[in-house]
Input
Amino acid sequence: MEKTDGIGNENGSTEEKQSFKDGSICGYNSLHHLLSANLKPQLYQEVSRLLLGLNCGKALETIVPPESAKALSSKHDFDLQAFKFSADKELLREPRVVRVGLIQNCIALPTTAPFSDQKKAIFEKLGPIIDAAGASGVNILCLQEAWMMPFAFCTREERWCEFAEPVNGESTQFLQEFALKYNMVIISSILERDINHGETLWNTAVIIGNHGNIIGKHRKNHIPRVGDFNESTYYMEGNTGHPVFETAYGKIAVNICYGRHHPLNWLAFGLNGAEIVFNPSATVGELSEPMWPIEARNAAIANSYFVGSINRVGTEIFPNPFTSGDGKPPHPDFGHFYGSSHFSAPDASCTPSLSRYKDGLMISDMDLNLCRQLKDKWGFRMTARYELYADTLASYLKPDFEPQVISDPLLHKKSF
Ligand SMILES: NC(=O)NCCC(=O)O
Output
């Protein structure tokens, strides 16, 4: 249900336009809602074909979530969308269909509330959304980056480090119960405190198996130094490589937030055999929104795997204004985290996005056979010429590296 007619309404008043500060797109939940509300059905179909691609030659199918999940989404006011990526029927392999979920959410209490209350309120907010995923039969569920806290890394204040937890801490224990209850793999991105290594901090994804066990962890490889993303004040670049976790439902990996700007990061997870790579994120409109629908989709295409992209929602106001050395006046917030979580598939199709301003659960079935089918069709792995790039990289890393540039000999000749 949309809030206003947005600019689609010719009489759109100033008040209506003001309401766009809520994070909506001219009053609409998402770009796709804006288009479907304003284009004739035939035009919308054609725009969708170009915008979202085709899966097995058809528009992506939707699936109907169970009534219990729909009831939870109405009661707790979160967006709920469900789709299905198919693959071609094979003669020798059975389809390998898994149901995957992504959760996006805003924080639950102001950042000025006691930390324990903030964390508890986020747990309480997430419970019904995870229940909806469980009721829908989701096999693998991924939460957003540092879901258990406000994204306070803009502030550079040390007190936010108190939110950090060991891999087997409170947040993991909270999710382990759901994993066990719903026979679900859960990927939980937390601020980690590594007790055994001098209590250092990391930005870490914990992989919880469908028996409630901890399968392993991965630490964020690339730390942003852009805009207000002052994360390097808090933790260092990860030391866990590019692990792929073999779970009951397929081989999965996690490329945490800013790592999505690094094509080699995506590649490495692919080389290790990932079939689904999750990108739990926290990013804001002004900085990255034009990149958001492109990077994950490109990674899915180039590496012949599925990608699940998740971004938090809302504007988080911090008690003390901060600056980031970019000449901007002190400000108390990052800007708007624009949600828009979605899935991308190796055949270049993708789902529409979840809301730009509301909590949400995005579900999709995906037949993992599609990964190999796309490798066979496009041959990106076979044509990759890795040895050329290995040579270039090895040479680039040497201190005496010189770029391979052949200059036009006439370029520096004096003309008479
Ligand atoms: N959390 C995080 O790494 N954000 C960086 C900004 C971006 O990559 O869009």
